[in-house]
Amino acid sequence: MIAKNKVPSIKLSDLEELDNPVTSDDLDFDSENWKHLSPEVRETFTREKVRRAVREFGANGLSIEEISSLTHLNRIAIKKHLDKLIGLREVYSQKKNYKITLYYHNGKPLHHLGKKRLDCGDTILETTIAQGKNDSIFFHILEKRYSVLEGETSEGAIMVPIKQLDQFIEDLKELKEKYGSF
């Protein structure tokens, strides 16, 4: 029997497929609804709140305290999600002094320009073009894993400046020629 107030199941991949899947107001749940969400969904929504704060208000950098005042999350949760977003190359940090670190959004995905996807079993590589700091253009290569329970989850990413793409490809070809027979 399904409880009346139960929130439908949402996977991380459901949110990651969209640039702005829900509005910031939709990321606020009262405690009654929050408790019906699975731990994975709570993590996803919390990370999305941090991502949105940095994306929307971080042009000049945001400290953890500023993100906390925007999201009403505690410092520990914010730091945990910033570390994950840094690993995904969506956010980068700069130390201003020994006490203050500022966090910046690492580029806006330009999905409308296209996305390429390479399926390699349980690993998926997605390539999109991203607009970075000072309107510079990058290839954003995101590694995802697939599991039946979690769907697609992001594992890490790299950003290659478009001006250096040819050299990057040549370096990959050279490595393939040298070590491709393993």
Task: Summarize the entry for a quick read.
The chain is an alpha+beta fold and 182 residues long.
Give an overview in words.
This protein is α+β, with helices and mostly antiparallel strands and 182 residues long. The chain has two domains: 1-106, Arc Repressor Mutant, subunit A, CATH 1.10.10.10; 107-182, Roll (Nuclear Transport Factor 2, Chain: A), CATH 3.10.450.700. The chain contains six helices and seven strands. It has helices at residues 12-16, 31-34, 39-57, 64-71, 75-87, 165-179, and strands spanning 91-95, 101-105, 108-109, 115-120, 123-131, 137-147, 151-161. Strands 3, 4, 5, 6 and 7 form a five-stranded antiparallel sheet that branches. The longest helix has 19 residues, at 39-57. The model is unreliable at 1-13 and 15-25 (pLDDT under 50).
Question: What's the architecture of the largest domain in CATH terms?
Answer: Orthogonal Bundle
Residue fraction in strands: 25-35%
CA radius of gyration is 18 Å
- Helix-and-strand structural type: alpha+beta
Give the mean pLDDT. Answer: 79
Count of helix runs: 6
**Tally of domains:** 2
Tell me the CATH superfamily of the largest domain: Winged helix-like DNA-binding domain superfamily/Winged helix DNA-binding domain
| CATH fold naming of the largest domain | Arc Repressor Mutant, subunit A
Contiguous low-pLDDT stretches (5 residues minimum) are 1-13, 15-25
**The level-1 CATH class of the largest domain:** Mainly Alpha
